[in-house]
Structures are given as C-alpha cells and as structure tokens.
Amino acid sequence: MINTAISAAIKAGNKILEIYNDPLADFSVERKADNSPLTDADKASHNVISELLKSTKIPILSEEGKTIDFVVRKHWDTFWLIDPLDGTKEFIKKNGEFTVNIALIENGKPTMGIIYVPVMQTLYVGEINSGAWKIENANENSTFKELKLKGIKLPEINIRKEYTIVGSRSHMSKETEDYISELKIEHPMIDIISKGSSLKICMVAEGIADEYPRFGPTMEWDTAAGHAIANAAGKKLWLTDLSRELQYNKENLLNPYFIVK
C-alpha cells in the first residue's frame, strides 16, 4: 500500500512538471469558493492520484475532489487524505516550492505520509511504526524498501548556534510575528527561513529548523502528510497551547493554528 502511494505521488508530480515546464501550457487560474487558486496542474495531479489509489479500496478525500459530507466521512476509520498540489501559489510563481501530499488517516490520526517535490525529485516518506526518510532523485519505481536502504533517516543531526524558525513564503500573519518576538526572549539568536508549501513541516522533520509556527488558516489536506512524516521523525504538530496534536476528519476540515516542533 505504501509503495502504491509513493508511485502515485511521483507520477502525479511528473504530470505537474509536464505542465510546469511546457512553455505553451495554460497557467490560467480559477478561483475556488474560498478564493484559493486552482490550476490545470492541480486537477491533473488529482486525477492521477485518485486513479492509482483506487486499487487500495480505501476512501479518498482530496482537496480537488468532490465534496464529501461529514455524514458519510464520519464512518471512515481509514482513508486517504491528499493535496494533489500543495503550494499552488508557488507553482504559479514558478519558484519550485510546491509538493504532492498523500497521507493515510486512521482513527483521526495520520499514520503514513508521502511528500514529493517534483522540481527537486525529492521524496519524503514517514510511517509511524517505521520512521521517516528522505531520498533524492526518486522515480516512479522507488519503493519504501529502497528508501530505507538508500535514503537519509530523519531527523538528521544539525548543529547550529541560531534557533531556526521556518515560516510561510506566502503567508506571514501578525500573530506569527508576535510569536517570533516572544521566542527571541528565550532564544536571542534566531534565524528565520521562508519556505512554501508543506516543505516547512519537512524542514522540522529533517532537523533543519527547530520549529514552524502557523498562525494562519490551513486545511487538513495541507498538513496531514507532513504531520505523519514529522511524527515518524519524532516531532509533533501541536495546538498552540501545546495540549494535544491536530486531529483529522473533523466536521469542519479547517485546522486550528498549530506549532510544529
């Protein structure tokens, strides 16, 4: 099942790259009900992933899929939660900081996560009982076994003087700025890195950043795959009061604010 999800993420990423690299591709943007952007690449990636994950016979909830009422979803113990193109704004800007995200949710918790970075051909995979890994130059035939043999186990050990915070490339709220100001009392030497999409969570899972505070709106599909990878690497996606982690398959799919560390 995990190999099917890995293949789906990479094949979808390759489909996105076809559009990204095509000088004649249509980069026109539709607007969804929440005013977030939608491109042909989002839709193409969704179609690839949905088709490949059908074989698992597990329900699929996708950002670009048909809206599924909570009266149906609340009976799902296990389901796929996918963001076919996380970082659509970064895709449109052509800065490469966008990903394909696939997560397996079991009883409200992300237990498996796959994040693929098409432009870099970088693959992150986390499985709660096995651990988290990163591998470069991933291809459609890459497997979890290969990842564990040849990849880098996360987190890596990074020794640095500064306390490193990663923030959004496209969203930096007043609450986030205030939170960082408070951190400076405890950590006088702070380095702030801006990054798009779920790569921010990956940076904490890798050990490149110490934390990622998010005081802004996100949806469950934005965080699920990264959450699984972070957990597999020994990190947490806390509510801002640090009382518990994010939960999934809520009636309202909007996430509360959170801190990854």
Helix content: 25-40%
Strand content: 25-35%
Shape: globular
Number of domains in the coordinates?
2
Q: Could you give me the name of the CATH homologous superfamily of the largest domain?
A: Fructose-1,6-Bisphosphatase, subunit A, domain 1
Give the count of helical stretches. 8
End-to-end Cα distance, whole Å, is 28 Å
**H/E series, N to C?**
HEEHEHEHEEEEHEEHEHEHEE
Indicate the mean pLDDT: 93
CATH top level assignment of the largest domain:
Alpha Beta
User: What structural class do helix, strand and pairing data support?
Assistant: alpha+beta
What's the alpha carbon Rg, rounded to whole Å? 17 Å
Major beta sheet summary: 7 strands, mixed
Number of strands: 14
The strands making up the biggest β-sheet line up spatially as: 3-4-5-6-7-8-9
- For this structure, the quaternary state is single chain
CATH topology of the largest domain: Fructose-1,6-Bisphosphatase, Chain A, domain 1
Unreliable spans:
none
Named at the architecture level, the CATH assignment of the largest domain is 2-Layer Sandwich
What descriptive keywords fit this protein?
33% helix, three-stranded antiparallel β-sheet, 261 residues, single chain, 2 domains, Fructose-1,6-Bisphosphatase, Chain A, domain 1, seven-stranded mixed β-sheet, 8 helices, alpha+beta, D-Maltodextrin-Binding Protein, domain 2
